[in-house]
Design brief:
alpha/beta; Transferase(Phosphotransferase), domain 1; 14-stranded mixed beta sheet; nine-stranded parallel beta sheet; Protein kinase domain-containing protein; Leu-rich_rpt_typical-subtyp; transmembrane; leucine-rich repeat; repeat
Amino acid sequence: MKKRRSGAPLLFLLLLVLLLFSELTIQQQQQQQPLSSPAEFVALLRLRSSLGIRSREWPIKADPCSLWQGVKCENGSVAGINISGFRRTRVGRENPQFSVDALPNFTLLTSFNASSFSLPGQIPNWFGQRLGSLQVLDLRSCGIIGIVPPSLGNLTNLTSLYLADNRLNGSIPSSFASLKNLSTLDISSNSLSGPIPPGIGNLSGLQHLNLSGNKLSGSLPGQLGDLGNLVNLDLSFNDLSGSVPSNLRGLRSLQRMLLGNNLLSGPLPDDLFSNIGQLQVVVLRNNSFSGSVPGLLWSVPGLVLLDISSNNFTGLLPDTGSNHTAAVLNISQNMFYGNLTQLLKGFSLIDLSENYFEGKIPDLAGTNLSLGNNCLQNVSDQRTAGECTSFYAERGLVFDNFGQPPETGKKSNRKLIILVGVLGGLGLVAFLSLALLFICIRKRGSTNQRAVVAGPASASGTPLPSGTSVDFSNIGDAYTYQQLLQATNEFNDSNLIKHGHSGDLFRGILDGGIPVVIKKVDLRSIRKEVYPVELDFFSKVSHGRFVPFLGHCLESENEKFLVYKYMPNEDLASSLFRKTSSEDDTLQSLDWIKRLKIAVGAAEGLSYLHHECSPPLVHRDVQASSILLDDKYEVRLGSLTEVSAQGDTHQSRISRLLRLQQFFYSKLCI
C-alpha cells in the first residue's frame, strides 16, 4: 500500500505565493493611490508653470500620481519628482530659470532629479533648510552657476548627490562632512577651486567620489584613507599637488583610482597598495611622480588598466609573471630601463615608449607593443647610442651598444665638421628669420585693417599675443545672424543637440534645404580663445577625416557662431547602441564591419594630425561624441577646439578640458 505524500510543502508554497502577491498588491495600491493633498496638487501646478513643463508630460486634468511622468507617490503624497530630459514649453524656453519654489510643499519628497533639464541660475540656499527628507538630489547638466550652498550639508538623509557638468565655482563646502549617509558624491566637471575638505573622510559609507575636472588645489588629505567602503575615486584633471599620503592604503574596497592630470609629485609609498587587493583601474598619468613603482602594484590580480605614463618613474621591471588577462599597460614617458621581462606576458596592450629599455624584445611580449624612443636592439625609432650610454653611465651602469665599437679617431673630426656646419646653418636661418620678421612688421599695418581681432590661442596651441589680428574672412562663408536665426527657428530648444564644453550645438536648415549644425559660442561664459582656435585650425588644415566647416557668423561681440555640415549618423556615442523602430524599444548595436571601418577612419584622422602636420598636432579631445559619422559611416573628427602642437608648453592648462581619459576609464569597467 502506497504512503500518502504529505501536502504540507505544497500548502507552505501556496501560502508564500499568496503573501508575496498581497504585498505586491498593497505596494501597487499605495503607488497608484490618487494624490490626496490639495496643497501638493497646487504646488505641482506651480512647479509645472514655473518650469514650463509641457502637457505631454504633465497633463493638467489628470491625476499626478498615476499619469504624470516622473511623479512618484506613496500613500497619496508626492515622494519623488523626475523631470530629467524634459523639454520646456515655448514660453518656458524664452526665460528659463531655476524656479522651484514649490518644492518645500512636498513634505515627504525623497528624490528630485532634474538632470539634463535647463535650470540656469544658482542653487537656492533654502534647498538645505526646507528639503530635509531628500535622499537623492540629481542636478547634473542643468546649466547651474554660482557656488555650492553650504546649507546642503544639512540634508543629512542624502544618499546620492549629483552636481556634475555645470558651471559651479567657489570651494567644496566643509559642511559636506555632515552627510553621514552619503554613498555617492559627484561634483565633477565644474570650476570648483580650493582644497579637498578633510571632513569628506568622515563619510564612512561613501562608495563613489568624483571630483574630477575642476580646479582643486592643495594636497590630498590623508583622511581619504578612512573611506574603507570607497569603490571609485576620481580626482583627475585638477591642480592637486604634493605627495600621495600612505593613509590611502586604507581604501581596502577601492576598484578605480584615478589621480591623473594633476601636479602630484614625489615617490609613491611602498605600502600604498598593501591592502587594496580589488583594484581594477589605476591612472596616475601626467603628474611628476618619481622613484620606483611599488612592487605590489605590478601584481594586483584583477588589474584591467595601469596607466602611469608621463611621470618620472624609474627602475627595472620586475622579472616575474602576472595574473592579468586582457589588461592595458601604459608606462610611456618615464625613465624605466633594463631588459623587458616576463611581466609583459600578462598584458595585451602595452605602451613602453620614451623610456630607456635595452636589449632584445622577448617573444612573449606579443605584437601589441609601442616601443619607440628606447634603447632596444633591432627596433626602429630608438634613441641614439650616445643618449643611451649617457643615461646608463649616470646610474653607474654599462649600456651594451649592440656590439658596436665606440666612436674614436676620425669620427671625432667628422663630428667637429658636422657641428661647424650645423652652427653655420643655424646662423643663416636666424639671419633670414630676422629679415622676414622685419618685412612682416612693415606690412602689419595694412594687414590689420583687413583682419578680424582674434582670441589668445592658435590652432598650434601657442597663445597668440594680445591684440594680434588674424584674418578669418577667407575661411568658409560668412553668414548673417538672421540667417542662423531662421535656420534654427530662433535657436529653439527642440533643435538643441547638446551643451558642449566649447558651445551649444543646434540643428539647422539653411536656405536651399541644406542641413547644418551650428555651434553657438557665448563669450560671456566660455573662454574667448575657443572660436579663434578652431577657425585657425580650419585655415591651416584640410583633410577628409575632419568635420566639413561651412562658415561662421562673427557679427556679435558676445556671441560667435560656427557652421558645420550635418552628419546624418550623428556621433559614435549615439550610434553604438541605437533604438530600433520596433515597438519594443530594443537597442541595435553597430555590426563589427562598421566598427572596424570607424576605428580605421578615426586612426587616419589622428595619424594625419600626428605625422603629416608640421609641427605635429594632438587632438586632445578624442571621445565617442567627437567621432562624427556621415551617411556612409565614414568618420569625420569633430571637437577641434583643443587641438594643439605636440609637446605644447601649455599642455597642463589645456588638459583639464580633455575628456578622452575620463571617457575611456569610465567605460572600461562598465
